[in-house]
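Q: Could you write out the predicted structure for this multi-component system? I'm mainly interested in how the pieces pack against one another.
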Amino acid sequence: MKTAVIRLSQAQLNLLELCPPQFQRVYLEQLGSPIEPEVQESLLWGNQFHQLMQQHFLGLSIDSILEVDQDLKKIVEALLRAVSEQHNLNSDCWTEAEHYRGLEKENYLLTAIYDLLIINENKAQILDWKTYLQPQNKKKLENNWQTKLYLYLLAETSNYLPEQISLTYWFVKIPHEPQCLTFEYSDKLHQEYTKELEFLLINLDEYLLNLNENNLNFPHNKNCENNCPYYNLFFSKINNIENDNNNLLSIIDEIEEVSI
Ligand code: SF4
């Protein structure tokens, strides 16, 4: 019997790498924590901004929305000007907002949705909107699975060489000028990310097998268990897991993260 394919997005890879017990809790048992009102508000603004950008790049007018909010109008116009200059947007480019990419790897379907993909003959640029200020720590963003998976997937699912692919984050927050940070891809990075990804998926295979066959919870990361205040929270025994492998696996679904 064919095993169910598990969808994995960057948000899930990040959580799996950071904290396997929390991955089990959130994605297998679907026990997410309630969202704080301030976070909820920021997510709402983030979603509205993404929809606005999608509407613009679909060729639909956003003038009536901008006319009623002058601060928003100023920042959107500044962003569109900067994007056009920085990425050399012209009639030779093919662009698509909310562009989906998926790649099946063993029992997993790796997925990404690019806020904007810009395709030229010799290069492919992925753009991602962030509705907060540019973080100081570039390394942290570079190591985030959003950066790694987005670049990896395009190299694996297109004819572009890794060296022809880049990912740019645009940081937008009223009343600041938009800022950007670009990560160029390379063959060396592609090999590194491939190994990291395979390592993570092999671990996930093992955790799922242990959970399903031996009722063993996902393990803690060895390098953080002594310091973590949540360590003991994850010791409760799992009682409600079905033995059927397909039932267990099929409840994992993609949750797109708006921010890092
Ligand atoms: S020690 Fe804490 S952060 Fe580390 S894996 Fe366990 S619960 Fe997660």
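A: Regarding packing and overall arrangement: The domain at 6-250 is CATH 3.90.320.10 (Lambda Exonuclease; Chain A).
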